[in-house]
From TrEMBL, chain A:
Origin species: Pseudonocardia bannensis
InterPro entries linked: Hyd_form_HypD, HypD_1, HypD_2_sf
Alphabetical list of Gene3D superfamilies matching this protein: 6.10.20.100, HypD, alpha/beta domain 1
Keyword terms of this UniProt record: Iron, Metal-binding
Iron among keywords: yes
One Gene Ontology molecular-function label: iron ion binding
Gene of this entry: hypD
NCBIfam families found in the cross-reference section: hypD
Family: Belongs to the HypD family.
Matching Pfam families: HypD
Protein name from the UniProt record: Hydrogenase formation protein HypD
Keyword Iron: yes
One GO BP annotation of this record: protein maturation
TrEMBL record, chain B:
Organism (species): Pseudonocardia bannensis
Recorded family membership: Belongs to the HupF/HypC family.
A single MF term (Gene Ontology): carbon dioxide binding
SUPFAM superfamilies: HupF/HypC-like (SSF159127)
Biological processes annotated in GO: protein maturation
Protein name: HypC/HybG/HupF family hydrogenase formation chaperone
Highest taxon of the lineage: Bacteria
Length: 375, 97
């Protein structure tokens, strides 16, 4: 058992796997979605699926913020970056994401001033140093990064740095989960809840999933043992006829989240009526925009953006992968036309994307399984 | 961007109330700890001191963690490969003071 060697505590892992198998009712199939890309990474890296009974499958959700940015928003960002007096700033993850007219990297090569930053406060510093330029920060991410953007805007307001603006693309996790629950394509038995997003929002926002949809959710840590334990807890709930939100990751995730972070998001941003998610289409109240009070820092209001909707490439099946309907390797272009070096779809761009994670790690465990079957 | 990186607080920077000097994989960086500021019942505004571990997302501390969790996270991150190396490089180039 090679996989077990990779765990800290092989004995515990073995015991968990046995208990998981014992909880599965004969003849019943179980499907759990892990929402967060970090979990997807652990699952593929450690071959956890091969470790679960055949009747338990894990499907990957839309929890990679880079993956869900629609092509039209990338084009809008590039249009902003092409203004002569604009310095566009962005997290490195965003640089290779393809829009309809190429990526930030392509636009940078063509002469646009696009700079990678680690922290939105780095963008603020660039604005301070370049008073004759307008500095736009391409804000992306779920609730893990939205508070940082909000804190940066509050800082810009204090410093009256009016040459700083945010192109806000923050998304919120709950409406995406709701959209998946409402989707007829997929029958799920429960969720492995995200780790770091829950640090901010806490566990309460998930309660509707158990209450209204009758599905259990367990917020999970990122270690292989964490994920196995979360699967065990989901199965135990189903076995005992319970349906609750549980916190397996309580060593990091407080039940009520980070109140300060939620407060600053609410101060600076508000929900958009709707926002397009790559592959999932338009989802109501699923993203954040700047409040009117901070309109002077809102790139969309300052510059106006083209707002053109660009359809995903026909060959790309990111939407199905993001909804968990398709496994990465079931996509028509996976590993052939679409690779991490030349991605067609976003799931192959980000290291947290299901396709990139599977391309880098998962295929090895599949090969191992194939070999084992042959032998 | 999605990776939460653990860091050990070296000192609170009194000249910037929201900043702390933090050691991340042995490299000292300023990190914004403003999201950990709250009005605590004992009157303190920030429950943080040198030696504490925090989980950092894009230059901001999102939560306090214990040392064992920090060590486990660092091992997990080491297994992530390029994405973590890129993130550490970006962090090294970042200067928010």
């Amino acid at each position: 058992m090679r996989f077990v060697d990779e765990f800290r505590d092989a004995t515990t892992a073995r015991a968990l796997a046995t208990e998981i198998a014992a909880l599965c009712e004969p003849g019943r199939r179980y499907k759990f979605m892990e929402v967060c890309g970090g979990h997807t990474h652990t699952i593929y890296k450690h071959g956890l699926e091969d470790y679960l009974p055949e009747t338990v499958s894990l499907v990957h959700g839309p929890g990679c913020p880079v993956c869900v940015i629609p092509m039209g928003r990338v084009d809008d960002a590039i249009a902003l970056a092409e203004h002569d007096d604009v310095i566009m700033t962005s997290f490195g993850d965003m640089m290779r994401v393809p829009g309809g007219r190429g990526s930030f990297f392509d636009s940078k090569a063509a002469g646009a001033d696009i700079r990678m930053v680690y922290c939105p406060l780095d963008a603020l510093k660039i604005a301070r140093k370049n008073p004759d330029k307008r500095v736009v920060f391409m804000a992306i991410g779920f609730e893990t990064t939205a508070p940082s953007t909000a804190m940066t805007v509050l800082r810009a307001a204090v410093e009256k740095l009016d040459n700083f603006a945010v192109f806000c693309n923050h998304v919120t996790i709950i409406p995406a989960i709701k959209a998946i629950l409402d989707s007829p394509d997929l029958r799920l038995d429960g969720f492995i809840g995200p780790g770091h997003v829950s640090t901010v929002i806490g566990c309460r926002p998930y309660e509707f999933i158990a209450r209204d949809h009758g599905k259990p959710l367990v917020c999970s840590g990122f270690e292989p043992l964490d994920i196995l334990q979360s699967v065990y807890r989901l199965l135990l709930q189903l076995h005992e006829g319970r349906c609750e939100v549980e916190n397996q990751y309580s060593r990091v995730v407080p039940w009520n989240g980070n109140a300060k972070a939620l407060r600053v998001i609410g101060e600076v941003m508000e929900l958009r009526p709707h926002f397009e998610w790559r592959g999932l289409g338009f989802i109501s109240h699923s993203a954040l925009r700047m409040r009117e009070k901070y309109a002077r820092f809102d790139a969309e209001q300052i510059f106006g953006v083209p707002g053109v909707r660009v359809a995903d490439p026909k060959a790309c099946q990111c939407g199905e992968v993001l909804k968990g309907v398709l496994k990465p390797w079931e996509c028509k272009v996976f590993g052939t036309a679409c690779t991490p070096e030349t991605p067609i779809g976003t799931c192959m761009v980000s290291s947290e994307g299901a396709c990139a994670a599977y391309y880098n790690f998962g295929r090895f465990s599949r090969e191992r399984v194939k070999e084992a079957t042959r032998a | 961007m999605c990776l939460g990186i653990p860091g050990e607080v070296i000192e609170l920077m009194t000249e910037h109330e929201d900043l702390a000097m933090v050691s991340v994989e042995g490299v000292k960086r300023a990190v914004n700890v403003g999201l950990l500021r709250e009005d605590f019942p004992d009157g303190r505004a920030l429950d943080l001191q040198p030696g504490d571990w925090i989980l950092i997302h894009v230059g901001f501390a999102l939560s306090k963690i214990d040392e064992a969790e920090a060590k486990a996270s660092l091992e997990w991150l080491a297994g992530v490969g390029d994405a973590y190396t890129d993130e550490l490089e970006a962090l090294a180039a970042s200067d928010i003071t």
